Amino acid sequence: MTDENTPRDEDPGNESGFRAGRHALPDDAPPQTGPIPIVGGPPPVQSAELWKPPPGGRHEQQAADTSGSAGGWNAQGAAAPAGGATGAGATALAERPREEKKAKKARLSEGKSAERRLAYWLIAPAAIMMLLVTGYPIIYAFWLSLNKMSLSAPGEREFVWFSNYGAVLSDGYWWTAFSVTLGITVVSVIIEFVLGMAIALVMHRTIFGRGTIRTVVLIPYGIVTVAAAFSWYYAWTPGTGYLANLLPDGSAPLTEQWPSLAIIVLAEVWKTTPFMALLLLAGLALVPDDLLKAAQVDGAGAWTRLWRIILPLMKPAILVALLFRTLDAFRVFDNIYVLTRGSNSTYSVSMLGYDNLFKAFNLGVGSAISILIFLCVALIAFVFIKGFGTAAPGSDDEGR
Amino acid sequence: MRSRVSTDVSGRPGSAGRSGSGPKNSRTTSRVRRKVVAAAVAAAAILPVVSACGAGYEAGVLNFYPPADGADTFAAIGDKCSAESGGAYKVVTTPLPKGADDQRLQLARRLAGNDAGLDLMGMDVVWTAEFADAGWMVPVPDELAAAVTERSLGGPLDTAVWKTEDDENERLYAIPFSTNTQLLWYRKDVLEDKVGRKRPASTWDGMLEDALISGRNGGPTYIMVQGRQYEGLMVWFNSALVSAGGQVVDPDDPDKVTLNDTPEHRAATVRALRTLKAVATAPGHDPSLSNSDEGSARLGMESGKALYEVNWPFVFPGMRENAIAGSVPFLDLKRFANLYADPNNPPSDRDVIPVNREMQKVFDFAPYPGFEGLPTKTTLGGLNIAVASTSKQQDLAWQAAECITNEASQKMFSLNAGPPPVIESIYDDRDFRLAYPMWEEIKRQLEPEHAAVRPKSPDYQAISTLLQAKLSPVGAWDPETLVDELADAVQKAINGEGLIP
C-alpha cells in the first residue's frame, strides 16, 4: 500500500489543481488554452507527468479497506467520480476534441478562409478526377440496374424501374449468398481481430529480432490470394493434400457446405490476420508506456490494463482495422472462386454478382446485385463509424 | 500491329514540340510548349491503350481464337492453311482460356466491344443460338454451307444450325469441326467372372442389376458418372432425358418448355430423373458421386472400384498410359513400357495394336446406355468454327475456315489432339480407324437418330446453370416434384427473370 502511494506523494501541490481542471471542469469554463493534446497522439510531457490513473473498482475497495491511511487518497477519490469506473483516461481524452472545435471556429480569420479557398482550388482537379473515375461507373451501374438488358442481346433494352431489385431480393439464391457472406465476414473478422491483437501485442513487446519477426508474420499477407487459395485447395484435396490426408479416408471436405465454409474462413484468416496485426500494432504504438506503468503501479493487472487502457486508447486504430477487414471480407471472392467455385451453396454475394453478369450475361440483374453489395458495404461503414462514435477517422470530432 | 500504332503516336509529340519553339516571346513559348508537352504526354499515354483494344486489323491477317486444349494443333492447322493459301491470308492463332465459360466470356467481350481483329472463333456447340441471336456471327455462305452439309455427320451438323428472328429457315451458322460423344466403358473380366455375362448391359437398369450381382459376388460395384454441379451433370441428364423420349425445350420453339407440358413429356422426364436417382442411391454406389467429374470417373475406374463408367473416349488412351506405368491394379501392361521409352518418338498407332488388344480383355467399350424399348440418344460435345460479325474480312475468313475445317485438317486434329472428326469419310480412313478402335460406336452415336443435342436456346447458359443447381446433389430429391421445379427454372431462364446461382 505504501508503494502505491509513493508517486502521489511526490506532487502534492499540483494534484488537486490539475485534476480538478480535467475532471471537474464547470460547463461554462473558458476553453483550455495552450497546446491541446490530440486524441491518440502522444500526450504532451506535462500531462503525462501529471496524469494519474483513476481508481478502478479494485482501488476503491482497497481505499475503503485502508481509509485514511494516506492524505492524498481521499482527494483522488473525490476527484474521480467524473470518470466513473469506466477507464477515466479515455473519457478525459474524448472530452478534449469538443473544446478544440470551439476554439478552431473562433480562430478562423480572414486570411485563414482565403487559404482554405485556395486549398479547395488546389484539390479540385484531383477531386474531379476521382469523381470521373469512381462516380461514372457507379452511376452507370445504377442505370444498368434499372434496365432489362443482356450482353448477348445488343440493342435490346427495356426500362423496368426497380424490378431487377425485386427479382434479386425475392430470390432464394441472393439470401443464401447473403447469409453465407455475412457468416464468413463475422466469423473471420472476429477470429482475425483476436489473433491479430495477440500477434500485435507480441510484436510490440518483442525485445530481440523485432524486424525479423514482423517480416515473418507478414509473409502470408504478401502472398497473392489466388496463389494461397490454390495451395489451400490442393492441401484439402484428397490424394494431393497433406491436410486432406490427415482426415479419415474418403472424406473430401471441399465437397460439403460446412467444411468448405470452414476452409474458406481458415484461408481468409490465415491470409489477412497479419494485416489486422499490422494495423493494430500501429495503434498500440499510440498507447503511452507511462500510462501503462502508472496503471501497473496502481495495481491494474494485465487484463485490466488491456480492457481499460490499451483498447480504449486504440479505438481509432481498431475502428480502421475492423472497418477495412469487414468491408474486405464482405466482398470475398477469390478464395471462394478457387476453393469451391461456389458449389454446395458456398457462394458469396460477389460471386453471385459475377455469375449473373459474366455467365448469364444479365447486365440488369447483375448490376442490381452490385449496387446492393455497394449499399451493404456503405451500411457497414456507417454502422461502424456511428457505433464507434467520436473516434471515427474522417469524422468532425476526430480531433485533428 | 500495336507497336505500329504506338510509333504513330510517339511521332506526333516530336513534331508538335518543334513547331511550338518559336524564338520571339520566350514566356509565351515556354507556356505553350509546356501545354503541348502535357497534351502530348497525355495523348501518348492514352492513345495506345485506346487503339490497342479493337479497331485495328491488318489486311490479310486473320485472327483465329480456338480453345486452349489442342492449341498447338490449331496453330499447326492455321500455319498449314496460311501456306496453302499462297499468301492470300495469314492465320494468327491465339488460344482462348481452358474453361468453356471463360472462352465464351472472352469472345463475348471482344464481340460486344466490336473487335475488328476477331475473325475466326472456336465455338462450343451450345453457343450457336446465343451468338447467332446476338448477331455476333454471320451465317455460312450458301455454297460452302451446302458442301459442309453434304460431308458432315447429322448430329454434329445439327449443333451448328439455328434460325434467328430474321431468318426464314434454319441455316448453318458455323462449320462443325470436331465432335465428341460418351461411351459405356466396362470391366470385361469382372462381367465374366462375377456377373456371368459376356456382353455389357445396354440400359441403365441392366447396369444397376449387374453392379448388384457383382457386389454380391465380391466384385466392384461403382457406376462412374459425372454428378458434380457442372456442365457434365447437364450432359448426363440430357442424355437420359432425350433417350427417355423427353426434351428440355421444344426444338421448333425455343421459348416453350417441354419438360412437363404433356403427360408423355412429363413421364419421360420422371423416368430420366428416376434413373439418375437410382444410379446415385443404389447399394454400393460411388460415395463421391455428387462431386464426380470426367477426371474422377476415369480415376475411379482405373482404381478398380468400378464396374461401369460413362465417359468420353479420352479414357481409353488414359487407361493405357497408366497401365503401362503400372498404376492400374487389374491391368499390368509394363511389358510394353519399352514402346514408350523414348518420349520424343512415341509409338505409332500400329505399334499400339497389341497393347490395345491386351487392354480390351479387361477394359472395353460399348454404346452408351439407354432405356428398354427406346432408341438411345447421347449428348454431343464438340467444336464449331464460326466467322465473327465484327470481322472486316469475312470473305477471306470463310476461305480460311473452309481450309481449317477440311478433311485433312480434321484428320490431323483428331489424330493429334483427340476429339473425333465430323466428316463422315474420315471414319473410313485406315489411320483413323487404327487410332480410334471405337470408331464404329462413335460414328453410330453421331447419326441424327442417336444423337441428343443439348437444348438449342439463346438462353442455354442460364438454363443449364439452373438445371444443374436443381439437380445437384443428385438423388436428394423426389423425381415427381422435381419435374415441376425444373420446368419453372427453365421458364425463368428463358424469360430472363431471376438469378442464376
Could you describe the 3D structure shown?
- The complex is a heterodimer of chains A (400) and B (501).
- Chain A is built from 18 helices and two strands.
- Chain A is mostly helical.
- Chain A has three domains: 2-107, no CATH class; 110-145, no CATH class; 172-398, MetI-like (MetI-like fold, Orthogonal Bundle).
- In chain A, a hairpin with a 7-residue loop joins β1 and β2 (157-159).
- In chain A, α2 (12-23) packs parallel to α5, α10 (210-222) runs antiparallel to α12 (257-284) and α15 (315-330) packs antiparallel against α18 (363-387).
- Chain A is flat.
- By secondary structure, chain B is of the alpha/beta class.
- Chain B folds into three domains: 2-52; 61-180 and 380-452, D-Maltodextrin-Binding Protein, domain 2 (3-Layer(aba) Sandwich), CATH 3.40.190.10; 182-378 and 455-495, D-Maltodextrin-Binding Protein, domain 2 (3-Layer(aba) Sandwich).
- Chain B contains 20 helices and 14 strands.
- In chain B, strands 1, 2, 3, 6, 13 and 14 form a six-stranded mixed beta sheet that branches.
- In chain B, α3 (71-84) links the parallel β1 and β2.
- The radius of gyration of chain B is 27 Å and the shape is globular.
- The relative contact order of chain B is 0.15.
- The interface between A and B is medium-sized, with 29 and 28 residues.
The tally of helices of chain A reads: 18
Helix residue percentage of chain A:
55-70%
Q: Given the helix and strand composition of chain A, which structural class is it?
A: mainly alpha
Q: Give the averaged pLDDT of chain B, no decimals.
A: 86
- Estimate what percentage of residues of chain A fall within beta strands: under 5%
- Topology, number of strands of chain B: 14
Content of β-strand of chain B = 5-15%
At the fold tier of CATH, the topology name of the largest domain in chain A is MetI-like fold
Helix content of chain B: 40-55%
Structural domains of chain A: how many = 3
Number of domains of chain B: 3
Content-based structural category of chain B = alpha/beta
Oligomer: heterodimer
Largest interface: A-B, 29 and 28 residues
Largest sheet of chain B: 6 strands, mixed
Low-confidence stretches of chain B: 1-25, 48-54
- Main β sheet profile of chain A: 2 strands, antiparallel
- How much is the radius of gyration of chain B in Å? 27 Å
Q: Return the CATH topology of the largest domain in chain B.
A: D-Maltodextrin-Binding Protein, domain 2
The CATH superfamily of the largest domain in chain B is identified as Periplasmic binding protein-like II
